[in-house]
Amino acid sequence: MLSCKDVSRLLSLSMDQSLPLRKRMEIRLHIWFCKACPNIEKQLLFLRRAARRLDEDMLHSDRVKLGTEARERIRKAMRQ
């Protein structure tokens, strides 16, 4: 069974790339039994959403001087 440290690392990694089905199942199983790891998952999701919102706000800010093409490239990259 995965340790909490392993699950934390894998949850973070899963935000950026797809994990194999077996690893995702191991993570879900661990989270189901663990008292701490569900909170870690919630915190990582919160940080991800906050970072995306901040990035989106910055794209629409007058303080950031980007061309239309650059803004579109950034938007597309953020959606992936």
What does this molecule look like?
The chain is mainly α. The chain is built from four helices and no strands. It has helices at residues 4-14, 21-33, 37-59, 68-79. Helix 1 (4-14) packs across helix 2 (21-33) and helix 1 (4-14) packs parallel to helix 3 (37-59). The model has no long low-confidence stretch (mean pLDDT 87).
Mean pLDDT: 87
Distance between the termini: 31 Å
Number of strands: 0
Query: Helix count, per DSSP?
Result: 4
- Structural class label: mainly alpha
Q: How do the SSEs run, as a string of H and E?
A: HHHH
| Estimated helix fraction | over 70%
* Net shape: elongated
Low-confidence stretches: none
Question: Mind describing the biggest β-sheet?
Answer: none
How much strand content do the residues show? under 5%
CA-atom Rg in angstroms: 17 Å
What is the gist of this entry?
Helices cover 74% and strands 0% of the residues.
Provide tags for this entry.
80 residues, 74% helix, mainly alpha, 4 helices
Secondary-structure topology with pairs:
Layout: H1 4-14, H2 21-33, H3 37-59, H4 68-79
Helix pairs in contact: 1-2, 1-3
